[in-house]
Amino acid sequence: MRIFVRKFFPASLILYCLVSAASGVALAAPDLMVYPTRVVMNDRQRTAQVDIINTSQVKASYKISLVRKRMTDTGGFEDVASPQPAEKFADDLVKYSPRQVTLLPGAGQTIRMMLKVPAALEEGEYRSHLVFTKMVSGISDLSEQDASDPNTVSMKVVTNIGVSIPVIARHGKLEAQAAIDPSSVKVVAVEPKQQLVDFTLSRTGTRSVYGDVAVYRGDEKVAVGNGLAIYTPNLTRKVGVPVLDTFMLKPGEHIRVVFTERDEKKPMAETTITLP
Questions:
Q1: pLDDT value at position 136?
Q2: Residues 207 and 82 in one domain
Q3: Which has the closest alpha carbon to 167: 111, 249, 223, 213?
Q4: Which of 9, 83, 86, 246 could form an S-S bond across to 13 if both were Cys, CB 3.0 to 4.6 Å?
Q5: C-alpha closest to that of 251 among 194, 187, 189
Q6: 171, 193, 223 — which closes off a domain?
Q7: Residue ending a domain, choose from 171, 204, 232
Q8: Interacting residues of 270 by C-beta distance below 8 A, sequence separation 6+
Q9: Do 153 and 189 reside in the same domain of the chain?
Q10: Torsion of CA 132, 263, 226, 238, to 10 degrees
């Protein structure tokens, strides 16, 4: 596989990624910009790329790896020690390069990926996570004061910072449906002037779902949640969408909760309730 290296990304791309991060389609870590925030490949589209930019003021090195993670029912991720029977992972199917990069401040790199589909591969959705881990040296650091005392040892503790994005490989003809449980919809006050619309989103079918949530009171959009996913094999996810600061929901009002898959216009799931 050829490795494509670009010493510095043009200013226009850096600006695009900064704007994208603000709109939720790029991932901005403390010193690393990653775009896109998820990768989907399938039988017809077997290649993809991820662009990263060092946004810090110092040179940094990153180790790049594909790891297995499990989604929790609240949308978090945990490392997989023992795979469950229904879990399918993409790290054996996806080849990528490079696996380590060193970037000057403002410099970027393109990570190339390719999906390899074995002849006997079972139909389904396979997922692993591309992780970018900052590499640091664990060198002891002696202050001037401590260096004068041979009996004193001072250690500098440095933490590795990792950024991860899902990499999804779909094989075969897959489909999915979603639903919102109306009995689960409720408004919760988390602060005196801050509310959340809580509900349970469910998924059926052979692939994951990924999209955005909007809550309406009449024609007014009162709450928004972007980039919500239920990854296979999970069937449900507990969702909490913050109500916009300019609105306050009250008992007896009618609200409509809508989930729409990304890049689709027709809602995938919706429900209307009267707030108790």
A1: 81
A2: no
A3: 111
A4: 9
A5: 187
A6: 171
A7: 171
A8: 180, 256, 257, 258, 259
A9: no
A10: -90
